[in-house]
């Protein structure tokens, strides 16, 4: 092989090619080319620019490190301040806790089993499936003329058979979701109607749900997998909520129901020990800074002797109340004491009774929130209290029926009781109880909300934070008990949770998702945030109790703490952090460990639970199917079929398998029976 070589010598150029050598003679280079082509001024500018950039980078790094260190110092300082405050209120908390435990021990003897006011399955399902609806499909009857009843019921039975065809059901759901006018509310409603219609075939319902979830995973993997199951925007997401509710009812009954009820009772007892404004719903004892009664109210604890008829005898029953309580608040406290073992729906409503103050043989005075003696100043009218009537400590009172009232508690679907902010005014007068509402009725609503946000953004004074910490310390054991009941793996977790977490792990593996944070978020969105937060915020979905506005405010903080405990992001607090995050800053890291251990233990033991899950679903189908009003649910579903009839028929006819099974033809038969629809039969 021959190679060409160029050799540059200082003055002589020689060329070698194989054995041939040629001298080309001396070479002279242009002296200017040896100089730098870049002018001196440009070199100085470049050097200066590079130095400035390096300096800026160093400054940014130093500032970032300084801010990080400052944030860490602030975090530690805030934790130290909170710890100091908690130590300062420790003695008060211990005293309060001792009083509370005495009250709770009396209550525990009633709770053991029959005393727990757990809702029956039908009412529980109704409240979870159809929240906020006063008349849900489970409570309705099929309203049809007798001449049409048999034909319509036959058509609905055929619709039920169609729903048991997986291709029809998935096509039906996807077609509805593709329609412009099919709202988010419609999606949730249809999902709950399907849950009722297929409640006797939960194995099939579960398989359909898994198929739809696989489609959902496919969609989110292409976009942002961490957002999956974050909200309830599709039919399948509401189906999942309902499925979890069905499967976890026995767990609520046997494990989580009692600590949840004890937490509710502890909150109620503590809130009622201090003044609660009947108009604004603000309370002196709360965890929620936006519902904190900040004004100093002079009040005294009192005991009333309430005459209670026990068979033929009338016996006095001592009831603790406050002299600042309105008459309705007094009646509620008396009913709580007299009917303490009874579910809320089975006791008389406060507005069906009058409170009568009895002094001597002839002295009977009926007390009420508003009467001719009420104090009116300008446009403000104050609600009457025991203090207003000058009722002394130890006075004798009785609750007597009010003749023009309905008599029994008509509990609204959610079991909530809201304060009387509006609608209680007459002749331009505004009601107030302990403090006058600062809101001016003439200010537009959007201005009011922004004012509230600004007010909440202000740093909360230490004296108020101390009140919140005192309440938190007193309730801490009951909050811990609920969280541990939900997240403990000392007893086997519910089979449905193990089954579904295993399904999510399989989906992550199938789509090549190896980021543990994504799977953690999926699990959090499917169980703690989808089911448990709903139960923590709304115990009336599970228990036959009344949740007042002041109790709801406390539960909201506890539910938010549970949400924070399930997130993967590091929990750090500073001076500007929301108050609820400050309150539980020391506990949240401990709760996070509980959540992580719960997920880890289930992951270790999840495999091989499919057979057990199917047996459980078969058992659940048989247990509660008779309580489901499936005909009404099918009739409601048909209304959606009728509304989008052409689109559904077209979707079924486009599918080759659907054509072979004659799904469009079978739906036309249903339409002909249910509403005499003229079709191309």
Structure in words:
With 681 residues, the chain is of the alpha/beta class. Helix content is 55%, strand content 10%. The protein contains 24 helices and 13 strands. It has a five-stranded mixed sheet with strand order 5-4-10-6-7, with helices on one face. It has a three-stranded antiparallel sheet with strand order 1-2-3, with no helix packed on it. A three-stranded mixed sheet has the order 8-9-12, with no helix packed on it. A hairpin with a 3-residue loop joins strand 6 and strand 7. Helix 6 (184-197) packs across helix 21, helix 7 packs across helix 8 and helix 9 (249-272) crosses helix 17 (549-566). The N and C termini lie far apart (89 Å).
Topology summary:
Elements: E1 4-8, E2 12-17, E3 20-26, H1 40-88, H2 90-111, H3 121-129, H4 146-163, H5 166-177, H6 184-197, H7 202-222, H8 235-247, H9 249-272, E4 301-310, E5 313-322, H10 327-338, E6 353-359, E7 363-367, E8 376-377, E9 380-382, H11 386-389, E10 396-401, E11 416-417, E12 430-432, H12 445-457, H13 462-487, H14 495-510, H15 516-526, H16 528-537, E13 547-548, H17 549-566, H18 579-583, H19 588-605, H20 610-624, H21 630-643, H22 645-654, H23 656-660, H24 663-675
Parallel strand pairs: 4-10, 9-12, 11-13
Antiparallel strand pairs: 1-2, 2-3, 4-5, 6-7, 6-10, 8-9
Helix pairs in contact: 2-9, 2-13, 4-21, 4-24, 5-22, 6-8, 6-21, 7-8, 9-13, 9-17, 14-19, 15-16, 16-17, 17-19, 22-24
């Amino acid at each position: 092989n021959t190679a060409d070589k160029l050799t540059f010598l200082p003055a002589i150029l020689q060329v070698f090619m194989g054995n041939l050598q040629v001298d080309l003679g001396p070479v002279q280079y242009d002296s200017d080319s040896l100089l730098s082509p870049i002018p001196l001024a440009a070199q100085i500018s470049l050097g200066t620019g590079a130095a400035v950039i390096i300096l800026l980078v160093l400054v940014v790094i130093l500032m970032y490190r300084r801010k990080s260190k400052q944030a860490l110092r602030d975090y530690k300082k805030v934790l130290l301040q909170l710890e100091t405050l908690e130590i300062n209120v420790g003695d008060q908390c211990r005293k309060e806790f001792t009083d509370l435990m005495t009250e709770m021990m009396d209550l525990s003897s009633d709770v053991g089993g029959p005393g727990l006011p757990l809702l029956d399955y039908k009412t529980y399902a109704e409240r979870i499936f159809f929240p906020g609806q006063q008349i849900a499909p489970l409570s309705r009857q099929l309203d049809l003329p007798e001449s049409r009843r048999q034909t319509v019921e036959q058509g609905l039975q055929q619709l039920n058979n169609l729903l048991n065809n997986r291709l029809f059901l998935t096509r039906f759901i996807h077609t509805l979701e593709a329609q412009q006018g099919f709202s988010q509310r419609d999606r949730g409603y249809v999902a709950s109607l399907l849950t009722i219609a297929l409640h006797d075939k939960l194995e099939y319902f579960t398989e359909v749900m898994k198929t739809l979830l696989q489609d959902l995973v496919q969609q989110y993997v292409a976009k942002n997998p961490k957002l999956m199951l974050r909200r309830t925007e599709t039919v399948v997401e509401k189906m999942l909520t309902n499925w979890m509710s069905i499967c976890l009812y026995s767990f609520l009954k046997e494990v989580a129901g009692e600590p949840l009820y004890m937490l509710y009772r502890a909150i109620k007892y503590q809130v009622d020990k201090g003044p609660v404004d009947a108009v604004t719903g603000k309370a002196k004892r709360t965890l929620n800074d936006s519902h904190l009664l900040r004004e100093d109210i002079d009040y005294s604890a009192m005991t009333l002797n309430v005459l209670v008829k026990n068979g033929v005898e009338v016996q006095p029953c001592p009831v603790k109340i406050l002299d600042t309580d309105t008459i309705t608040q007094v009646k509620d406290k008396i009913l709580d004491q007299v009917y303490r073992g009874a579910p809320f729906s089975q006791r008389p409503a406060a507005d069906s009774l009058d409170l009568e103050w009895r002094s001597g043989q002839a002295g009977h005075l009926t007390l009420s929130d508003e009467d001719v003696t009420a104090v009116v100043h300008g446009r403000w009218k104050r609600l009457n209290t025991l203090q207003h009537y000058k009722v002394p400590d130890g006075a004798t009172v009785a609750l007597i029926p009010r003749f023009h009232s309905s008599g029994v508690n008509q509990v609204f679907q959610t079991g909530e009781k809201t304060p009387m902010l509006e609608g209680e005014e007459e002749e331009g007068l505004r009601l107030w109880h302990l403090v006058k509402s600062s809101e001016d009725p003439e200010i537009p609503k959007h201005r009011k909300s922004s004012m509230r946000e600004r007010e909440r953004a202000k740093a909360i004074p230490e004296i108020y934070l101390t009140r919140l910490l005192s309440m938190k310390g007193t309730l801490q054991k009951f909050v811990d008990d609920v969280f541990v009941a939900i997240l403990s793996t000392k007893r086997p977790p519910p089979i449905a949770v193990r089954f579904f977490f295993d399904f999510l792990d399989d989906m992550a593996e199938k789509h090549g998702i190896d980021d543990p944070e994504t799977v953690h978020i999926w699990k959090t969105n499917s169980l703690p945030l989808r089911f448990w937060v709903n139960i923590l915020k709304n115990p009336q979905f599970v228990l036959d109790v009344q949740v007042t506005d002041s109790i709801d405010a406390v539960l909201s903080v506890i539910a938010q703490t549970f949400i924070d405990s399930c997130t993967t992001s590091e929990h750090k607090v500073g001076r500007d952090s929301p108050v609820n995050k400050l309150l539980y800053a020391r506990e949240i890291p401990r709760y996070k460990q509980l959540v992580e251990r719960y997920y880890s233990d289930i992951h270790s033991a999840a495999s091989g639970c499919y057979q057990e899950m199917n047996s459980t679903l078969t058992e659940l189908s048989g247990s509660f199917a008779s309580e489901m009003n499936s005909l009404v649910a099918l009739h409601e579903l048909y209304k959606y079929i009728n509304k989008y009839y052409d689109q559904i028929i077209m979707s079924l006819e486009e599918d080759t398998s659907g054509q072979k099974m004659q799904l469009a033809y079978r739906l036309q038969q249903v339409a002909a029976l249910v509403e005499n629809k003229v079709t191309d039969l």
